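Design request, tokens follow.
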């Protein structure tokens, strides 16, 4: 992969990563520190646009405070709300540089979730800087993320939804329940080993080995939503921040930034098509990832086997596995450069920035091409961004495949008051309920879907022992799963 470099070719010239363990600083301070680490003062003063994904904090315009602190007093500030892909900010910054509309831009994000957790545990709350003035531009996601039928059956947390998707993926892959858990254990044990070698990882202790017949990671982690325990979910109570600084190549040369440290954004392709989980025609598939990946690889003139490094979004195991399948990436290779969100840490809405910093660092060391994927919602929106130590064969492109994905996916109908016979499409056990509660998504012969539930111990035990996806069941009035099932 080698192309021409023009004065407006976007290049990633600076990365900064910060973490703290003592809870002494608020998110704003961590983000400012990350940006300072990403570039020399003369570079940071040239920032014309600063983009920040919304965190758990309440600042209305953190970008203004950070830009002023580094001397970029004229910078335009953008704040994107939850539900907008983190890669959107990267793609936009690079596209505007490529178009000649910007010369220097920064994308910054961060959290102090551990600080927040510690304060709440002590019965208080941390004191943060109050920023009341809004950003120059605030963007919000459109459409509802959840269906009323999902809310009515008690699905609440992200882990609940992803566990449903996991059951559909495991069944489609031809694995038994235990085989699916073994595969998760294998992938995530390797993640923990990679995190142990990542100097920025929150948890740097590799999981111990377990017998191959053991059907999960046995490290004492409590089950949350079957088959996921706490070792499988994103660790969002972390104090981490990161920053990316992009330049036009001509500006980078003017500032004397060595070309040996440049990383080229080759392409960002993303789907913003939203479809609620219970209405998706195939819960084991992720068409947005497939179409985004195809567009990205075609633009770069490479295939998945040409990637030297891969970072698959790892909020939950099914996101990793589904992305790998849709992109044509072998599950046997290393699928993360950070160690993944459970171990490296998953700052609430800025992990992709953290992962991109690590990707850039490793590419500088080793050379080659890497892919970073992004997810928003319940595997709802998807993106693939390709990075390289060489310029791409074509100018950078920010490709929106939303319309193509929408045309490929016709939603199913779902009802809140579903009852009668049907076939299980997805199932999990919510262990956050007391007692544990089975939730199953069912589809009848006419293609209409709805949910059934049960708290009977024998139903819980059966779901966790054998495959229920594809099984015939009857949902009684009120939503109870009739037992014994078919």
């Amino acid at each position: 992969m080698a192309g021409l470099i023009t004065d407006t070719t976007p290049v990633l010239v600076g990365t900064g990563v910060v973490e703290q363990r003592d809870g002494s600083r608020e998110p704003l301070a961590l983000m400012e520190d990350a940006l300072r680490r990403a570039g020399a003062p003369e570079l940071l003063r040239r920032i014309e646009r600063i983009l920040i994904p919304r965190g758990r904090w309440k600042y209305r315009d953190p970008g203004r405070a950070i830009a002023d602190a580094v001397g970029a007093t004229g910078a335009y500030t953008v704040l994107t709300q939850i539900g907008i892909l983190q890669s959107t900010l990267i793609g936009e910054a690079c596209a505007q540089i490529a178009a000649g509309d910007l010369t220097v831009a920064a994308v910054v994000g961060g959290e102090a979730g551990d600080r927040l957790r510690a304060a709440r545990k002590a019965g208080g709350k941390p004191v943060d800087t109050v920023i009341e003035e809004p950003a120059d531009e605030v963007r919000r996601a459109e459409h509802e993320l959840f269906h009323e039928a999902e809310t009515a059956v008690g699905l609440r947390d992200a882990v609940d939804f992803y566990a449903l998707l996991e059951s559909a993926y495991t069944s489609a892959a031809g694995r038994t329940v235990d085989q699916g858990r073994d595969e998760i254990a294998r992938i995530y044990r390797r993640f923990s080993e990679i995190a142990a070698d990542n100097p920025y990882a929150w948890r740097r202790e590799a999981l111990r080995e377990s017998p191959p017949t053991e059907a999960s990671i046995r490290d004492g982690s409590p089950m949350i939503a079957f088959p996921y325990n706490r070792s499988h979910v994103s660790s969002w109570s972390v104090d981490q921040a990161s920053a990316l600084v992009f330049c036009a190549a001509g500006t980078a040369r003017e500032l004397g930034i060595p070309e040996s440290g440049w990383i080229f954004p080759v392409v960002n392709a993303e789907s913003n098509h939203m479809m609620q989980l219970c209405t998706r025609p195939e819960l084991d598939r992720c068409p947005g990832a497939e179409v985004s990946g195809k567009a990205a690889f075609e633009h770069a003139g490479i295939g998945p086997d040409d990637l030297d490094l891969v970072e698959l979004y790892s909020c939950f195991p099914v996101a990793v596995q589904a992305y790998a399948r849709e992109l044509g990436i072998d599950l046997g290779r290393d699928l993360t450069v950070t160690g993944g969100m459970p171990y490296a840490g998953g700052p609430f809405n800025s992990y992709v920035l953290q992962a991109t910093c690590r990707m850039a660092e490793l590419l500088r060391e080793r050379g080659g091409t890497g892919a970073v994927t992004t997810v928003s919602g319940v595997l709802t929106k998807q993106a693939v961004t390709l990075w390289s130590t060489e310029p791409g064969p074509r100018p950078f492109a920010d490709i929106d495949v939303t319309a193509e994905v929408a045309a490929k996916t016709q939603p199913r109908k779902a009802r809140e008051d579903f009852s009668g016979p049907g076939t299980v499409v997805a199932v999990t056990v919510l262990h956050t309920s007391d007692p544990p509660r089975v939730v199953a998504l069912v589809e009848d012969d006419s293609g209409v879907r709805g949910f059934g539930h049960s708290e009977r111990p024998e139903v819980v035990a059966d779901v966790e022992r054998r495959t229920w996806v594809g099984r015939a069941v009857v949902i009684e009035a009120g939503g109870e799963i009739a037992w014994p099932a078919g």
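Comment from the thread starter after seeing the answer: thanks! Residues 177-196 form the longest helix (20 residues).
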